[in-house]
Write a structure and sequence with these properties.
The protein is 49% helix and 9% strand. It is mainly α.
């Protein structure tokens, strides 16, 4: 009997030690690899991926301490055997429980791609948010035929500039350039190509609409400015639109006097008459509508006042008077701001 009691005590001791060891193993396996301040990273899976593959990858990246412990946590919390397609945020500062929780919730973020952006500006905007690589985006912008099977309208030969429809999109981190451009082209197809009033000369209208977008401050100004551009074209006057020079420079900044003469580009509408060779931003449906239906008038000049109002002139003499009005308004605005300081 004494021998049996000793054996029982030894077995109990072994069980306690084993349980303690398992507990320590689990405890150590759950602990994060870094501090709470450690920056998180994004991971993305284009299709449903086995959980074991994901956990191995996170372990290799130094994010997850113990694959087996994480697998047990996933099993006993009803996670399932796979991770759904999507983007996820994980980091060394998370413990295994937090990482498993993160893998349950794919990321979504709404981002507005502005009408005023040309493609290169959009590319860097997206790269800053880790959505695309800017170089990848621009490479695809200059390879329209990569999307020939994705849309049902004729694509341009050299660049998708002007066809990348602006607006709000759900763009998770790491979705990639092709995914974003495909969304923009599909929106263009829906809003422009499939519209009841489709432009007959699509290329020309997009170029004109892009100029209208960057030159108009308010909706009511769009058809008016479109009319001025058409009037200048008819009279073979240079369009003299600053935004076209900025596009040639691929920089958004204040122009200097030298820029107007020194920027040798077909997009410099101070030196080259007619429309530029391509769109200079991403016009929306309102810009395209204005370009298709410009207001008929005899104006050739326009200026935007500090309060947002646009004033028009039919002759250069009237335009000079409007310049005086602009200078006076600008001076008054500066004085008002100085008084408020």
């Amino acid at each position: 009997m004494k021998l049996i009691r000793k054996i029982r005590r030894l077995l109990f001791l072994f069980i306690l030690l084993a349980l303690s060891g398992i507990g320590i193993w689990i405890y150590n396996g759950i602990k994060p690899m870094g501090t709470p301040e450690t920056k998180k990273i994004f991971v993305r899976y284009e299709s449903e991926t086995p959980l074991s593959t994901v956990l191995d990858e996170l372990h290799t990246k130094g994010i997850l301490r113990n694959v087996a412990v994480a697998g047990l946590i996933a099993k006993y919390t009803g996670f399932g055997d796979s991770v759904k397609a999507g983007s996820y945020s994980v980091g060394k500062g998370q413990n295994a429980l937090a990482i498993i929780w993160s893998l349950r919730h794919s990321l979504h973020q709404t981002l507005r791609l502005p009408e005023t952006n040309w493609a290169n500006r959009t590319a860097h905007m997206l790269e800053m948010r880790q959505i695309v690589d800017a170089d990848d985006y621009m490479e695809l912008v200059h390879n329209p035929q990569a999307f020939a099977n994705e849309v049902n309208f004729p694509l341009p030969k050299d660049s998708l500039e002007g066809y990348l429809y602006p607006g709000k999109y759900d763009l998770a981190p790491l979705v990639g350039a092709k995914h974003v451009i495909k969304l923009q082209l599909k929106e263009f197809e829906d809003k422009v190509w499939n519209a009841p009033d489709r432009p007959a000369d699509l290329r020309r209208i997009l170029i004109l609409a892009s100029l209208v977008q960057l030159e108009s401050g308010k909706d009511e100004d769009r058809p008016m400015i479109a009319g001025i551009i058409e009037n200048r074209l008819r009279q073979k006057m240079p369009l003299q639109i600053d935004a076209t020079i900025l596009y040639a420079l691929q920089k958004w900044r204040r122009l200097t006097f030298k820029d107007y003469r020194n920027v040798k580009s077909p997009y410099n509408t101070y030196l080259v008459k007619g429309l530029p060779p391509g769109p200079i931003c991403s016009p929306d449906a309102k810009d395209i509508e204005a370009a298709m239906h410009p207001t008929k008038h005899n104006y050739l000049y326009y200026l935007a006042l500090p309060n947002g109002k646009t004033i028009y002139a039919a002759t250069y003499k009237e335009h000079l008077q409007n310049i005086k009005i602009l200078r006076a308004a600008t001076k008054a605005e500066k004085a008002e701001k100085a008084e408020k300081r």
